[in-house]
Amino acid sequence: MQLLFDAGEEIRPCSGLGLVAGTVRKIETDRKLPHIGWNSLTFQNDSPLFRGLLDGTYVYFVHTFCGMADRESDVIARTDYGVSIVAAVSHGNVYGCQFHPEKSGEAGLQILKNFGELNR
Questions:
Q1: What is the pTM for the complete model shown?
Q2: What's the rounded Cα separation, in Å, for the pair 86 and 66?
Q3: CA–CA separation, 72 vs 29, rounded Å?
Q4: For residue 109, what is the enclosing H or E element?
Q5: Strand partners, 61
Q6: 49 in helix, strand or coil?
Q7: Range of the domain at 110
Q8: What are φ and ψ of residue 90, in 5° steps?
Q9: Residue in 3, 1, 2, 6 with CA at minimum distance from that of residue 21
Q10: What GO biological process terms are annotated to this protein in UniProt (predicted)?
Q11: What single-letter DSSP state applies at residue 33?
Q12: What is the CATH number of the domain that holds 56?
């Protein structure tokens, strides 16, 4: 997901693809980094990516940095790790997840299925 943003600060300041307005920054939290483990999603700005899933669905994260979207309308899910973190974005026909759907069990399989059905 991080490549989709305008810029990032992961190793050094660098440009992204600019498909989602915003910057990738280190998570500012008192909790241990990297953030590794299962966290629940809070859905916002209704998205077909989460069709068939309930608000509060758990998915698997492994990250130290996160996207900070300039437009709240691009944010389709958040999670809490001591601070609110953007967990998924969409802008036009571009979608990205901060979490790992492939490691997120049944919920992840549903999300991958939904990705595949986006352009049908």
A1: 0.94
A2: 7
A3: 21
A4: helix 105-117
A5: 37
A6: helix
A7: 2-117
A8: -150, 140
A9: 6
A10: L-histidine biosynthetic process
A11: S
A12: 3.40.50.880
